[in-house]
Every structure is written in structure tokens, then in C-alpha cells.
Amino acid sequence: MNPEQYFFNFHLGRELSLCGEFLYNGFEAIENDEPLYPKNSKEVSYLDNSAAFIFLINHSIAFERMSKIISLFFLKQKHPKKINGLLKEYYLSIDEEYEKMMEYSFLDEHENKALYSHSNIEINELINTIEQGSLELTGSERYVLQIFDNFYSKYRYGHFNPKDTNFQKEAEIVNSLLNYALKRNFMQGVPDPLSDKEKALYSIGVVIQNLTKKYYKKIDDLSRNMNIYTTETKNDSKSQATLLNYEKSTHSIFVRKQIARTELMFCISRSSNNECTFDPLNLSDDMKNQYIKLGISQDMEDIVTDLLDEWITDNQLPKENRLETLYRREIGIKKFMEYYF
């Protein structure tokens, strides 16, 4: 593996894994019991501003870095001499002989400006300039990225400004974004009894997940063209859970975790003398013990998900209403546990 391949494989691979962690932790921050308020409501001041800040800063950084990874791959593909110029000092530090073999040129002004900027929209425009139409955004995706850009530009250091007396600005932005998603209902098949907050999480999670899948697939395709493995992630990691999420919404990652926790607690706590509408899943004693000691793992979530799919099939329940079916099951189990425990 030459220095160039090493950079694109390992350096950018580690960067991508960090992006996955940012996305997971960012969305997890707003997975709380706080309500959704109408837009411009004064009650937004009661929301957790730190959770909103983490959501905004993490997603701003994650998508910015993922788009910069894509930009570097396309520059390598279309303008290899420019990449050589960008990495010249790196090549020299790794292998002086390799550095002597390279031909160099420099980035154009707009390329240099975009790569060193913190604007998702600007970097996306650079990508589509290098390779026309290679990373098109939908209206909702562009809207959300613009929200992240505005936050990062104006408010990431906002509270250091003594003239800034709006201490809940981050909460207002996130509350407004959730209202935007709720109104447009990007997620179909969500159970009606859910709160507006959870419906909004499902909906904004669709936009976030679509962006994540779009960026990840582009990086995966470009790395495969170089015969390297930039998109490999650590097994059972937050990054893997986010980047390889097969559900429509990022919110579903945390719903799966909640369901797995409920099912395991149900299996552990239920005795033969208690009656419940639903039978517990056939989970092994080893898995129950592991949950008690270490909590939920990705493997546990996957096993519970597979067993629930089998349960739906065995009971001939409609698969197209999977969310509604699982919602009713989890509500029934929780009522049973609340009654007996």
C-alpha cells in the first residue's frame, strides 16, 4: 500500500468512523422526554439547551467531514496532481522516494476555500462542480444542511458574545426543525398514539438517515474504485449502528434499543403465575445475564429484532404495519410490568 492509498484508507477511514459517532451521539442527545412546543412558543425556554447544542454541533461537523472525504476522493479521481499537491508534505514524511515520483499542482481558489470552510452547502457545490450531479440534494436535505450551516456560522460560539442574551437559541432552532419535520411527515406508518415529539423524531430522522446513507454510499463506491476499505467500521460500535442503519429513520436506532431493553426486562421479570397478552421472546439465559451485567449491545438488538420479525410472521400479522404492531406489543408489555412491578 503506497502513501496515497494509506491516507485514503486509514486516515479518511478513521475520520468516517468519527462522523458515525458524531451522528449517533448527536441524535441521541434529543432522545429525551421533553415535549415539542409550537414554533416561537415562549415555553421553549424550558427545554434542555445543551441537548439541542449537541444535536446541532455534532450533525454540522459530521456531514461537513463526510462531504470533505467525498471531495478528496473526487479530486483524486479527476485531478490527481492537485491531491498530490495537497498531500506533498505527507508523502515526504512517509516516503521520500514516493514523493519524488509525483507530479504536483495546486487547488483552485474556490476549491481551497470550500475545503477549509465549515459550510455543508459550499462543499456540496464543490463536489458537484468536480463531478456534475454526483451528490444531488433534495429540498428537505438542503434545508436541514442549511440549518446546520447557519447554526455553525452564527451560534457555535454565541454565548461568548455579551450582546447575545438569547440563551435558548439552540433549543429554538431544534424545536423549529422538529416542527418542520412533523408538518411534512417524512415517515409513513407511524402509530397515531405516539406523541408529536416522537413523530417529529421519526420524521427528522428520515432526512438525517437519507443524508447519512447518501454520503456513506458515495464514499463506499469511491473507496471500492481504489480497492481500499475506507468504510470499514468497528463491529458493535455507535458508528456502525448509524452508518449501516437499515431502517428509514435514525430515530429507529434508539427505538430498537428501547424495544430490546423492554423485551429483555420482560423475559427476566415474568413468572409463570403472571398473565400477559403476549408471550416473552425465547431469549437465552446467557443473553439475559449479559444484559444484567453489561446492558444492551448491538448483537442483542439484532437478535431481538429478528425474533420479533419471526413473531410477526408466526402470528400472521401484517408486515406492512410493523411499527404499529410492535408499538401495541411494547405498550402491552409495559402495562403488564407496571401492574405487577
In angstroms, what separates the terminal alpha carbons?
A: 59 Å
Principal-axes geometry comes out as globular
Integer average pLDDT? 91
Overall radius of gyration: 23 Å
Count of distinct strands: 0
Low-confidence stretches: none
Total helical elements: 15
Estimate the helix proportion, in percent: 55-70%
Strand portion, in percent? under 5%
Give structural notes.
It is a single chain. The protein is mainly α. The chain starts with a helix and ends with a helix. The longest helix has 30 residues, at 49-78. The chain has helices at 3-28, 49-78, 80-86, 88-94, 96-101, 109-115, 120-130, 139-154, 169-184, 196-225, 238-243, 251-269, 285-294, 298-314, 322-340. Helix 1 (3-28) runs antiparallel to helix 2 (49-78), helix 2 (49-78) runs parallel beside helix 7 (120-130) and helix 2 packs parallel to helix 10. Helix content is 67%, strand content 0%.
Keywords for this structure?
globular; 0% strand; 341 residues; 15 helices
Sum this structure up briefly.
With 341 residues, the chain is mainly α. It has 15 helices and no strands.
